[in-house]
Specification:
Elements: H1 4-27, H2 34-59, H3 63-76, H4 79-82, H5 97-131, H6 134-156, H7 164-167, H8 172-180, H9 183-220
Helix pairs in contact: 1-5, 2-3, 2-5, 3-5, 5-6, 5-9, 6-9
């Protein structure tokens, strides 16, 4: 299945992140385990996009299945960039060794989570291009960036999470309305969307360059 190597690599990086956490537990307990939970949540859109990409390449035109998978992906996609905001929890004490360990640990968790999100965005985008027109897939891609930022805002500021869709659906409309009319939410959503867009362009450029370089080398041989 296409992308299996990427999944294995991201699994390895996730284990390294957990190793950083285990080192901290060994030297200083108790520890907040929300990082591990948030890292787990960032895997849900990755796995969803993995199956969406492979299903569309195998079965072709499956719009209803892809729409369903895309909704699941979008509901959990904000969990990937969410961990960037965990850096706000850092307490600075330059004379304390754990300050630097926590800085590296939180950054590594955020980095792996972002990798999960960016790879999932690449795969779901490829699935959209397989099923929908180029313009529709582009619109979906562009819309997903600020929507992810809006989801991060709902999680960090409003303390909502993806499971509220099942646990407390009656509270969602009011929370959404209050947030949509909030200027901070709009700025936050736009900036997270820009961050994801720039990082995605870097990933896309690297992949495209590698593909073209590989094809060029094959033709020369």
């Amino acid at each position: 299945m296409e992308g299996l190597f990427s999944l294995l690599l991201l699994v390895l990086l996730s284990f390294v992140a957990v190793l950083f956490h285990l080192i901290r537990i060994f030297f200083n307990a108790p520890v907040d385990f929300s990082m591990d939970w948030n890292l787990f949540l960032s895997w849900i859109p990755l796995i969803t996009a993995f199956f969406a990409n492979n299903l569309t390449k195998r079965f072709g035109y499956i719009p209803f299945t892809l729409i369903l998978l895309s909704l699941i992906w979008l509901a959990f996609f904000p969990n990937a960039p969410y961990m960037v905001t965990d850096l706000a929890h850092l307490t600075v004490n330059y004379e304390r060794d754990l300050t630097w360990h926590d800085t590296i640990m939180l950054f590594f968790y955020a980095e792996v989570s972002l990798f999960n999100g960016l790879v999932s965005l690449y795969w779901i985008h490829q699935a959209w291009r397989q099923v929908f027109s180029r313009s529709v897939s582009t619109y979906l891609f562009l819309a997903s960036l600020p929507l992810a930022g809006f989801g991060v805002y709902l999680g960090r500021v409003k303390r909502m999470n993806s499971w509220d869709i099942l646990n407390a659906p009656e509270q969602i409309p009011m929370q959404l309305w209050n947030s949509i009319t909030d200027r901070t939410a709009l700025v936050f959503s736009l900036e997270i969307g820009i961050l994801l867009g720039i990082l995605y362009l870097v990933l896309w450029a690297i992949i495209r360059f590698r593909v073209r370089y590989t094809k060029g080398s094959s033709r020369q041989n």
